Amino acid sequence: MEALSINDVKPVAIDDATAPGLAQHKTAIAGLFKRRRVRVKELLAAGLSTVGHTVTVKGWAKTLREAGAGAFAFLEINDGSCFTGLQVVVSKDTPGFEAVMNSGGTGASFCVVGNVVESPAKGQLIEIKATEVTVYGDVADPSTYALSKKRHTLEHLREHAHLRPRSNIHSAAMRVRNAMAQATHSFFNERGFLYIHTPLITASDCEGAGEMFAVTTLFNHVKDGNVPKTADGKAIDYSKDFFGKPSFLTVSGQLNVETHCCALSDCYTFGPTFRAENSNTARHLAEFWMIEPEIAFADLSDDIDLAEDYLKYCAQYALDNCAEDLAFFDKNVEQGLLKRLQTTIESPFVRLSYTEAIELINKPENLKKGKFEKKPVWGDDLGSEHERFITEQIYKKPVVLYNYPKEIKAFYMRLNDDGKTVAAADVLVPKIGEIIGGSQREERLSVLETRIKEATGHDPAEYGWYCDLRRYGTVPHAGFGCGFERLVRFVTGIENIRDVIPFPRWPSNASF
Amino acid sequence: MEALSINDVKPVAIDDATAPGLAQHKTAIAGLFKRRRVRVKELLAAGLSTVGHTVTVKGWAKTLREAGAGAFAFLEINDGSCFTGLQVVVSKDTPGFEAVMNSGGTGASFCVVGNVVESPAKGQLIEIKATEVTVYGDVADPSTYALSKKRHTLEHLREHAHLRPRSNIHSAAMRVRNAMAQATHSFFNERGFLYIHTPLITASDCEGAGEMFAVTTLFNHVKDGNVPKTADGKAIDYSKDFFGKPSFLTVSGQLNVETHCCALSDCYTFGPTFRAENSNTARHLAEFWMIEPEIAFADLSDDIDLAEDYLKYCAQYALDNCAEDLAFFDKNVEQGLLKRLQTTIESPFVRLSYTEAIELINKPENLKKGKFEKKPVWGDDLGSEHERFITEQIYKKPVVLYNYPKEIKAFYMRLNDDGKTVAAADVLVPKIGEIIGGSQREERLSVLETRIKEATGHDPAEYGWYCDLRRYGTVPHAGFGCGFERLVRFVTGIENIRDVIPFPRWPSNASF
């Protein structure tokens, strides 16, 4: 049989299996796939127990420096599995020494085989005494390398989004982002919620939660700068488009996930959503991820309970799984981050109606302290300044506001018995402001139809499939939406939303 | 403090906590969120141990029929948590009996409080003797209800995609789909792969894996059917578009995820991808989900090992977690499904080079047996008929083909030493054909640049950011893509790809 070529590197001695604590996977399930290396994370975690073993480590140089008057070199290697790098000592007589010294240093990639020894240096238990080093890839011209050793601004990193995972801050943010995604799936899966993939492209007219991007193939049929037009020449001929009518990128999976909730009970979506708003700020993205659970046979208090559990679970998951990265953020990005997360976990969220919140902010001492640009008036949406004042200044912990005036909320939120408010709730947290928005859904067909007319001006018939859920076996249900990037900002303390997503999209920016 | 209104249903007696086996969550973590009901899944699983307890169950009627000359009714209720419904006996003197009888039956929704009793009927251990039934929502006019009790065609269900989660086949498919998503995250998370959200919208020119959808806001600026044009009037003025240049929906996250793999080591994406191909078939969707792992410091054999482990893990996960749904599919959709999955898990995948496969199919006995429309010739892509013949007729289990002619594969696949083939591998499985396609990536800058010119005709400079990964610390790496809907088809036996995704999109169809 024709052999599969082995292109990785010449076979090297690895005795991972003999070093205690160096299991390849957390899972017990046997498999074929094995890394032909030890990850830095497992090696550092196993610590002194690995001393005396031969290991193979692969990664990129964070730093490389000559020492002992050229007798040896210190190579700090990182493979992205954890924040800390691994110190490798390469002496002049080690095979590969010269190649290492000519590799360009920071950013070059290596395969290191060596012995684990106790480290004489401070701040690290172990280091590697290399017996052989292979350079996979050098940095031929370090002067052109955008991720050189020096400190870079966040703007510079954004401009080199393809290389910024090699920076401390972005790699830590991506590990935390991964942890929050895993936490999200664990949380809902453990509670019996089904993950439902709601559609991204939709020709449905009944969203209206924000400006939408059009999705089209009509630009493939441009003639003299014209897209196909209708017979009278006055409008675009969407019958020639891929879906035969105007189609858009979704702004929320909620209405779609309700269809599955009203049959399969508790569900959630976790996927990308889009806003074509011309917002060039540190708080908005044109493409972002959102988590939207939907609970069957539930009301607003169940919804708030779930939201509080979810945020606490995520904060705890981060503390449990990303301690090293969070320590970096606590030290370099937001002093007090760890304490803030601990407070989130330990204290019950404050629950306050919208009306009570308006009264609270309007107390003279709060108006004085808050120095608001705008005094809040019942009936108006609360500003970000008000929301953050409540959660950061008054309570210093998460606050849930509920029962908002119907005029400032969406048509699908359940009308309360007062006829003036709806069963909606927003969760406000220090540092972010609103992180979650939810509601009980209007399950009464006649009330829903009235609200559609009132709030959207449309004919309820345009919302036919959504109304069908109320026409046939309606049930009380509730849900919320959590902006995933806000969650990552909440857990890392990172200010700019562009720095918590691999490739941010904003007006005039869809590079990479 | 203003009270949160409880809109669910009048308070009912629940003693879930006292019935053994009825824990609300699998997790031990305490929380606020508690269902005010027992799920049918947990109740049936706890079985006879629940006899004598009072429980609250909520769900939709699968069937409702009068019995005993009107003295009582049999209500089969389902809450989507599992395939099987729960039988409820409602006697004439039970509060709510009349409302139940007037509910319209199939599709109506209920809150049932009652005592668990041993069932005298065959095929079920327990049933509920109702003490009170509340109708949440009726089906006022059953004649208009698209999901009435009778059997429906798959076409009919697709036309009512908002209600089809109430059908046996779609609800089972969605539970299996959920399980496969959870399995995917568990598999990669346990192995230390980071979940990376690659972008959906891209202005990058270097994809080219298929026809793309344009993403635009220019339709907001249409005047007399014209989108904004350049000064000479001959072309579309993309400078007025949201991203300032032509932008598209991604066809793959691979190139983007490589950036993070070349810094954080092993990563994966799992997200929607798009094809604007005019394929109106049971095998294609315009929007589908894809899993794309990328392994650092790995070659093609590592890649194939990971793919084999992954598919086996998913098959085992389905057998472990979806036994009831799989039994339904085995009986009603594909006889032999369970055996096929068991074979997948138990036998090593066959590994065969493309060249060997061509020779194999061209053996006279196989040409005779296969009755192919087209005889396979070295250098041509294998047809679906050839792929399925190899995996279904010759080996009757999964087969991995590797080392394909470079002319039929993408520019980024690593050139083998023969100069003619690339280190690519496809995994073929019975029932589906190709389910996974992967490759070792070309990590040598000069070879990559040559291949870009050769295979795409473009200037390598247009692929600048992708080439940078080879310019600065390149490493051997490999990865694959797995169509998620193909995986769900593989595990359920469902033929049409439109039946394994909540809201399928194809030419002229983006409803809901």
From TrEMBL, chains A, B:
The keyword Cytoplasm does not apply. Keywords: Aminoacyl-tRNA synthetase, ATP-binding, Ligase, Nucleotide-binding, Protein biosynthesis. One of its GO terms (molecular function) is ATP binding. The keyword Membrane does not apply. It holds the Pfam family tRNA-synt_2. Residues 141-502 form the Aminoacyl-transfer RNA synthetases class-II family profile domain. Its EC number is 6.1.1.22. One of its GO terms (biological process) is asparaginyl-tRNA aminoacylation. InterPro entries: Aa-tRNA-synt_II, aa-tRNA-synth_II, aa-tRNA-synth_II/BPL/LPL, Asn-tRNA-ligase, Asp/Asn-tRNA-synth_IIb, NA-bd_OB-fold. One of its GO terms (cellular component) is mitochondrion. Gene3D superfamilies: Bira Bifunctional Protein, Domain 2 (3.30.930.10), Nucleic acid-binding proteins (2.40.50.140). Belongs to the class-II aminoacyl-tRNA synthetase family. This is asparagine--tRNA ligase. It comes from Achlya hypogyna (Oomycete). The lineage of its organism: Eukaryota, Sar, Stramenopiles, Oomycota, Saprolegniomycetes.
